Amino acid sequence: MPVFEYRALNSRGKEVKGILEADSLAQLRSRLRAQGRYLVAVVESRGRRATGGFARHWPTLFRSAALAELNVVTRQLATLLAAGIPLVPALGTIGEQSGNATLKRVLAEVKGAVNEGSTLTVALAEHPKMFTPLFVNMVRAGEASGSLDIVLARLADFSEKEAALRNRLRAALIYPLFMAVIGVAVLVFLLTAIVPTITEVFTDLDRLLPLPTRLLIDLSDLLRSSWWLLLLVLLLAAAGVRSLLRRPFGRSFVDLLRLRLPVIGPVVQKSILARFASTLGSLLASGVGLLSAMEIVRTLVDNVHVAKVVDAAMARIQTGRSMTGALADSPWFPPMFLQMVAAGEQSGALDEMLKKVAGAYELEVEAAILGLTSLLEPLLILAMGLAVGFVVLSILLPIFEMNQLVG
């Protein structure tokens, strides 16, 4: 059934907005009149176009607002289904109380598609900007096994856990980033506003200034006269890096560098393994087959080299090898990971073992990032101290020389 976004006037002449399902525009007008509303403007919203259009125009708002509320909606739907409420009324109830306009419209479209005979999986797949392949495939497994409420509850647990970890890491990085931005702003202010007025005295002297002072004056002049050129260079460099990352060679190089860096590499590797194990474990627990689950996880791996290992492992599993043997030759899957997977395969509880591995790696990643951020703060303070010390030294050296000459 089509879903309409409308603007109407109520009995007091006040404009109201809303979303309503109707077979046709005439039925929409009739239903609004029954509510004492008179149609002013209407837009039909349907499937991919509606969701994609919103995400294309408001990507940041969409991800921050809709995805946060999507976890709540998933939990509510699981609760209603577990209580024995049919799917269509459950979708209608959740959609009516949703505070996010886009999510409300999408739920109305999903409800309409299910009411017309479509499966929930097919209805959700019509909105790829809202529902990820992981979400859709877990719902497919729940519908196939008849345990949709359990799968949705598990999916809500998984999404909430990922969101909590992401929020903790983001909170840990806010202070160092704030310090870096403030530090750079203070240095730019010193070099462009304070230093020139002080160094004007030195430029009038008919003598060779110390090297640090000359460097400081040149840097100040460069920032004052050619700041636009520096900004252009930075923008061109950013565009060049972005273009390089879009090319297979550039993406491969950067991904390998991320894995090979001395301090950051192990953290990146463990983060990838935690996401791999957590997602794969959730899919297997929901009844998805191993190969199908690995195909889904492959799309979520954001590293070219690890993705190639997963592709090779799937090919080996198809020939009859175990998951442990398929991953054994890779340098990116450490012995602890393989031993836990082997224990899970032998005991028939691979999903539980993968979740334990994911939990262990998530704790290690969080501890490592917190350690790096705690180390980053004194390093930033040291860098700021060195920069300010250079400015002060560059100003004081000519003064000391003049005092010696006067003396």
Name of the CATH class of the domain at 178-407: Mainly Alpha
Mean pLDDT across all residues, rounded? 80
N-to-C span: 94 Å
**What structural class do helix, strand and pairing data support?**
mainly alpha
Instruction: Report strand %.
Output: 5-15%
Assembly category: single chain
Fourth-level CATH superfamily of the domain at 178-407? Type II secretion system (T2SS), domain F
Rg is 30 Å
Describe this structure in words.
The chain is mostly helical and 407 residues long. Among the domains are: 1-45; 178-407, Type II secretion system (T2SS), domain F (Receptor-associated Protein, Up-down Bundle). It is built from 17 helices and three strands. It has helices at residues 25-34, 47-57, 59-82, 87-97, 101-115, 120-125, 133-145, 148-203, 211-225, 227-246, 248-260, 264-285, 290-300, 304-318, 323-327, 335-347, 350-406, and strands at residues 3-9, 15-21, 38-45. It has a three-stranded antiparallel β-sheet with strand order 2-1-3. Strand 1 (3-9) and strand 2 form a beta hairpin. The longest helix is centred in the last third of the chain and has 57 residues, at 350-406. The termini are far apart. Mean pLDDT is 80; it is low at 47-65.
